[in-house]
């Protein structure tokens, strides 16, 4: 085996461990939140030493930033994978469904909505900000297109629709329904999408 092949294998192993670290981070954040999460929590969950964890991420802030970037990359990948024949509204609905299922399956909570300190920390992460700007631009174009098609109200500002859409992705109603209702995940997603796009009227 060549040196290049060995290095490539090491790179792959490094990335696999990094993915496992980010999975563990998501689990800890979902259970404890940012303020209570520690690097020890993540290292213990994945079964590695704290020094090994620091080889990948220098701080809790870097670790959480990477997890959020991965979430945004996942959203962008989902959006770009939808069939071209989907209407703008169908793409918005399908992406919101994906985001709700991430939450319901115990994935990373939508941290920017939980704390001013977390928002400020993420805003200092240029990679994160770049991903946010890209995704926001894509979604904004979909909202405008859906309004032009008559699928979303043209009487509302596109900003109102867009930020209301964002709010649905981190709506605490999802958590309450999962904990206290008898609805399964599919029913929760179906009803949350209905509320988002059709409102509360029949």
UniProtKB/TrEMBL annotation:
Cited Gene3D superfamilies: Tetracycline Repressor, domain 2
Residues in HTH tetR-type domain copies: 15-75
InterPro entries noted in UniProt: DNA-bd_HTH_TetR-type_CS, Homeodomain-like_sf, HTH-type_TetR-like_transc_reg, HTH_TetR
Species whose genome carries this gene: Undibacterium seohonense
Keyword DNA-binding: yes
Domain of life assignment: Bacteria
Keywords: DNA-binding, Repressor, Transcription, Transcription regulation
Regions crossing the membrane: none
DNA-binding region location: 38-57
Annotated Pfam families: TetR_N
Protein name, UniProt field: Helix-turn-helix transcriptional regulator
């Amino acid at each position: 085996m060549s040196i290049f092949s060995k290095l490539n294998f090491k790179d792959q192993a490094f990335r696999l461990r990094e993915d496992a670290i980010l999975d563990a981070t998501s689990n800890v954040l979902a259970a404890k939140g940012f303020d209570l999460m520690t690097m020890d929590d993540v290292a213990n969950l994945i079964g590695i030493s704290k020094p090994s964890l620091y080889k990948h991420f220098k701080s809790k802030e870097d670790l959480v930033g990477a997890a959020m970037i991965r979430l945004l990359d996942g959203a962008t990948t989902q959006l770009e994978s939808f069939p071209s024949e989907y209407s703008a509204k169908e793409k918005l609905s399908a992406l919101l469904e994906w985001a709700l299922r991430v939450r319901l399956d115990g994935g990373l909570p939508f941290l920017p909505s939980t704390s001013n300190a977390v928002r400020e920390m993420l805003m200092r992460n240029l990679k994160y900000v770049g991903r946010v700007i890209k995704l926001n631009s894509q979604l904004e174009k979909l909202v405008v297109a859906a309004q032009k098609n008559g699928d979303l109200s043209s009487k509302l500002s596109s900003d109102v629709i867009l930020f209301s859409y964002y709010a649905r992705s981190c709506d605490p109603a999802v958590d309450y329904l999962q904990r206290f209702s008898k609805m399964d995940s599919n029913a929760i997603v179906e009803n949350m999408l209905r509320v988002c796009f059709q409102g509360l009227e029949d």
